[in-house]
């Protein structure tokens, strides 16, 4: 395992009870960080993660990002316990099937939930994070985007691709606007990652269809992403602020 020293760092990871977020939070704790573990519904999984590092000072926090009005209270609760946050990993997201044959009302309902979770919640946390980082004279944002931003997605997931496109523009604007305040912003754009989020797509199209797109012989797994996040949090990639790191097994090379 690559060791990246994160001792004395306080890091918020959203969507940390499962999938990519869980592996990120686990790796950060292994590197010595104190992690604010956000979860939406899976309290038991979040607790199990915390229990692996009972002396780390890490804690878990619940918030349903499909309800944006809850997010300010969630942020204030984290700050009340941690006082200082050094990095915010904006990983929480949904990948909701949105067939074009659906009624306009149903289609738009899915669109709204996708935007609330994938774009509105990160935007609100970005605003509050900037306010916090101004006071402490620096901090880092890591935004979990998607390959879909740069090559598009199948018609059932247009809303997902659009939400992640907005996230990338937000992250780049943060990098350009606040770098002189020692605030950095990074983007990771995975392709398909073997998590529960990808299960519906694989069920519809088959895992072989996913594998056929790759330059490598196997799908990306969450453990492939967590060391990169740790390096970003450490300050080792500060001069890549505003950059997008593609992590898609060679399925879309720009």
Automatic annotation (TrEMBL):
<dbReference type="InterPro" id="IPR036291">
    <property type="entry name" value="NAD(P)-bd_dom_sf"/>
</dbReference>
<keyword id="KW-0560">Oxidoreductase</keyword>
<comment type="similarity">
    <text>Belongs to the short-chain dehydrogenases/reductases (SDR) family.</text>
</comment>
<dbReference type="InterPro" id="IPR002347">
    <property type="entry name" value="SDR_fam"/>
</dbReference>
<protein>
    <submittedName>
        <fullName>SDR family oxidoreductase</fullName>
        <ecNumber>1.-.-.-</ecNumber>
    </submittedName>
</protein>
<dbReference type="GO" id="GO:0016491">
    <property type="term" value="F:oxidoreductase activity"/>
</dbReference>
<dbReference type="Pfam" id="PF00106">
    <property type="entry name" value="adh_short"/>
</dbReference>
């Amino acid at each position: 395992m690559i060791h990246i020293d994160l001792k004395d760092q306080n890091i918020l990871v959203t969507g940390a009870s499962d999938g990519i977020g869980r592996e990120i939070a686990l790796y950060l704790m292994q590197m010595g960080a104190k992690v604010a573990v956000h979860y939406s519904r899976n309290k038991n999984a979040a607790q199990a993660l915390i229990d692996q590092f009972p002396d780390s000072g890490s804690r878990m926090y619940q918030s349903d990002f499909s309800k944006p009005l809850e997010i300010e209270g969630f942020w204030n609760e984290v700050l009340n316990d941690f006082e200082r946050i050094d990095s915010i990993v904006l990983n929480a997201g949904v990948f909701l099937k949105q067939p074009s044959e659906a009624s306009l009302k149903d289609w738009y309902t899915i669109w709204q939930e996708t935007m609330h979770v994938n774009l509105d919640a990160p935007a609100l946390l970005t605003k509050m994070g900037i306010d916090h980082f101004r006071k402490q004279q620096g901090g880092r944002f890591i935004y979990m985007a998607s390959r879909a931003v740069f090559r598009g997605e199948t018609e059932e997931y247009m809303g997902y691709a659009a939400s992640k496109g907005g996230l990338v523009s937000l992250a780049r604007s943060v990098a350009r606007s606040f770098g002189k305040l020692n605030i950095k912003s990074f983007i990771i754009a995975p392709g398909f990652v073997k998590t529960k989020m990808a299960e519906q797509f694989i069920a519809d199209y088959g895992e072989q269809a996913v594998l056929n797109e790759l330059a490598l012989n196997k799908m990306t797994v969450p453990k492939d992403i967590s060391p990169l996040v740790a390096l970003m949090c450490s300050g080792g990639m500060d001069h890549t602020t505003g950059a997008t790191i593609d992590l898609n097994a060679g399925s879309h090379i720009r």
